[in-house]
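REQUEST ID: PR-0412
SUBMITTED BY: lab tech R.K.
PRIORITY: routine
TASK: structure prediction, single protein chain
INPUT:
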Amino acid sequence: MSKMIAPVRWLLALSILMLGWTAGALAQTSQPVCAQEAREQAQRLLDFHVGGDDRIFIEPDVVEKAPLRNPANPKQQFQVLEVRGMILKGQYRMRLIYYRLEDSCVLMGQEILEHASL
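STATUS: complete
OUTPUT:
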């Protein structure tokens, strides 16, 4: 009977390990709320900044940064999402600031910064 228990324990341990890997992979691929809106807005912002060009590339990853307090109401916070993009050799960091209103993402501000060594 102990010979039967050993494979069961091995399968149980393997299952638990695989669940841990799956959970880790899902955590890495999950995107913050408003990520899709942030990518679309980053595309528009970079297009506006460089004067329109069809060679703009927006990276798919959206990183949530520390929230900002609403200067008009300190009890409220804004979500800050960082998106990176490029055009030719120019690299840009864009931060898009959203307020979550129920199921909506309300754009409250945006910044763009070109990475350059001057």
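NOTES: The longest strand covers residues 73-87.
REVIEWED BY: pending
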